[in-house]
Amino acid sequence: MTPGVLVILVLVLGGIGFVLGRRRALQSAAREGLKLHSLPGYYGQTVALFTVVPALFLMATWLFLQPIAIENSVSSQIPDSAVAEGSARSLVMVDVRRIAEGLDSLAEQGALSEQVLLDMRADLTNVRSRLAEVGVALGSEVSPAVFEAAKSYRGIEHTASSIRTVAVLIAALVFGAWAWMRIKPRMRARNVSETFVKALLMGSSLVAILTTVGIIGSLLFESIQFFKLYPATEFYFSTVWNPQFRGGSDFGFLPLLWGTLYVSFIALLVAVPVGLMIAIYLAEYAGSHLRSFAKPAIEVLAGIPTIVYGLFALITVGPFLRDWIAQPLGLGTSSSSVMTAGLVMGIMLIPFISSLSDDIINAVPQAMRDGSYGLGATQSETIKQVILPAALPGIVGAFLLAASRAIGETMIVVMGAGAAARLNLNPFEAMTTVTVKIVSQLTGDTEFASPETLVAFALGLTLFVFTLGLNVLALYIVRKYREQYE
Amino acid sequence: MTDMTADKPAASTGPARSLLKVGERTRKRNAAEKRFRMLGLAAVVFGIVALLGLMTSILSNGLSSFNQTYIALDVYLDPAKLDKNGNRAPEDLRKITTFTVQPLILSAMQTMLEERELAAEGVNAKQAAALISKEAPAELRRYVIANPDQIGETVSFDLLASGRIDGYFKGRVTMESAALDRNISPEQLMLADQLKQAGLLELRFNWAFFTAPDASDTRPEAAGLGVAILGSAYMMLIVLVLSLPIGVAASIYLEEFAPKNRWTDLIEVNIANLAAVPSIVFGILGLALFINFVGLPQSAPVVGALVLTLMTLPTIIIATRAALKAVPPSIRDAALGVGASKMQAIFHHVLPLAAPGILTGAIIGLAQALGETAPLLLIGMVAFVREYPGAPPEGFFDPASALPVQVYNWTQRGDPAFIERASGAIIVLLVFLLIMNAVAILLRRRFERRW
Q1: Chain B residues touching A198 at Cβ < 8 A
Q2: pTM for this structure?
Q3: I need a surface site. Which of A247, A266, A307, B313 has the fewest CB within 10 A?
């Protein structure tokens, strides 16, 4: 039974539990001539909660732990001799898993019966060609030990899945029945179910923490794997980025960092002045007519997905810059360039800067404006000499948040900046960024043990640390500033 | 006071000045004021022009993808070729390949040209048949398998024209560019013009764009968004089902129950930071955790949905907390005063009053998730998928695509016709987003209460 069907089944059981619990509460109250402590619905709710929640929790944990347990037990079956020279046990396990999957699809298509599969032996049958029929391509011939491991992998997985179904259903029934048995008129069903619900609410708030732990954990774990294969100093201080398919790759971080910073710099050069001026103009000068039209228009820019900006860079801005600026000036012939990506990213960041600045400018007390006007300053003098200095910390915070977004932005640079890793000052040349390389190293077939794939995690970790630092700093500045006038 | 100052005007600033004549310094200051103002206006205009430029670029490139060129053709379904055994058995028919069907189209094209007395110089029969898409044989094959009784009849089809012909009628391909193109010649274009005059070729609304699956590099005219729309819909369904309850539950806890201590602080800082983590990092998390560790299948909507759920949660939590905060404490106090428990006060009174705000936030979060691309690239949703995913819940585990990823996928193809498709797909995506945002605004206008 697939997990989806199982979830639905458990939910149905919960529904039945609700009806039964409610009925039992009413019946027992009538029989014993007592008034119920809580409304009858709460008795039903208690039964339903006890039926559904533990069962689903068990299933989630099981789904999470089952692959690890199976992996461990199967990988201990593989003799050391089956692990080829220069290879790793984890690589062999990848093969085992793929063979098992292939056998599954062979059985599904009805090409082979279960019995035949069990009797199949790698030294007698050409497993590789059989599996190729169902679209599982293997790099080398299958050794008998690996094939046996794959068969037992498949066997254990099937048994584990059926045990899981049974265990989840039993958990639902047992807990549900237990809650149902406990029902009597004096039972404080409302308190029980409310405590239960409160625990659930608390558990939900932990999801955010778990997400962070998951992000940091997966990034750190895989990055450490990478740094075991490739020295960290070379990664961070080398200027050559040259991944190869068959080993001997150079992973120099500096060209990527340079590209990232260059694109972000141009983006901020566009976004900060324009966004700030828009915020000032709309807050201080614009009539209600213009504001009611311009403000939503700018906000629309914020709601547009980045893939749209990427396409805009690819089909319009890139060719335009190439044909009208770069080529006439002899600066380059590539339509994807730092300038293209930076300009489009700048447009994307305009609403971000302008809405943050708008909040900050509005937070400056009116009394300060009035004081400045009273001394005879013009509007622009007031803005430049009173409002902006007062709002400066907030604007710096907005700037840092925008910088963090620019560094982490992916689709615009993937489609607009190019893929060549180089250290260059010419903004009309294609350069590449950290995010572009994460995408290019991780799309396609992912073989987890190679440094070519693992480097993406090291890049991701660096990116995460960078943006997190900027965010924390920005939030700190903005929060500190807000308190000033409140 | 006023009298005294009025008596001695500008005594300290030297010679007497007329109030009607603007001084040098004042003029300078006013000019600076005007410049600053113009600068502000220029910035606003730049923003609006950028928006208009973006929209025009997408619309001008993409609107044409909603029309498609079709060629009407009467094809004789030759039993000698389609059904050699003459028994119309389905298993035999299924063995028909597109190669067996291709000659039928060729001869049908020839017959039509002869009957209508259309002749283009320099176009042989094969080139004439090349006006029709490479997808056409597959379409014919499907028709024959579905209607075996039609074998031996002459059936009229509306077949897709090839991508270049389609581009010619949309202005993408010209006589000059055709002269340089290996795949099409100006003579073929002239023949297409004649077909159009004869009424055999027409541009029609392209329903297949919304329902057909993706197509290979050589047949952009057949590529559609069916699988992508279905995949996106599946993902949005799971995201909604997971993120709304979890987000609302977390917000209720943090807003109403959580004690003010370090732990709660940590959770709150955490949520604020998660909202600003680059989306691609969530993709890495999905790849390492859900695919590599848990072993869920690549390209499956369920993995994409889990990643997008984690991304959407902070948005929903922030919106929900704002909505809960906006409900005045008097509502809670009144409920507690008449004997409700805290849980009852919240679930029976506060939550319903906050519901419009929560729903608005959820819709905006979903709209963000719908347009998100980068994390989906990493979990393998860029794969070329031609099969529709099955019905849920099993279908959630089948490979599928997603709207924004399909756009990216098409921009990576060689044929320029795919740029048109990508822009068209963007328009579809933007229409969905527009609908969602409009619903959010309507909800807010209709139900939001000011206390």
Answers
A1: 253, 257, 343
A2: 0.86
A3: A247
